Amino acid sequence: MILVDAHNLLHQDPRLGRLVRRDVEAARRELERSLGARDDVILFYDGGPGGVAEARRRAGVRVDFSGGGEADDRILAWLRANAGRHVVISDDRGLAAR
Fold this sequence. Notes:
By secondary structure, the chain is an alpha/beta fold. The protein has helices at residues 6-12, 14-22, 24-35, 71-81, 93-97; strands at 2-5, 41-45, 53-58, 61-66, 87-89. The longest helix is centred in the first third of the chain and has 12 residues, at 24-35.
């Protein structure tokens, strides 16, 4: 499985970075749309609609919202609950250190 620190990625991509400054939800949806229906990817977002932590499918992609917590914590919890080899995409040094 490929786990993506999606909020981090939104700020690293120049096009999505411009969009996120105007409308974070539109940037999220554009990222999801660009991935297409991928069963091997989970996008982890900080916050989320209504401030509620939840996991669901949008645009054919699995997304996980941290609600009031941090996406980093949700990524680590997912890794602990799912044994095996997985890839985490993030340039968050705090997450890498954990």
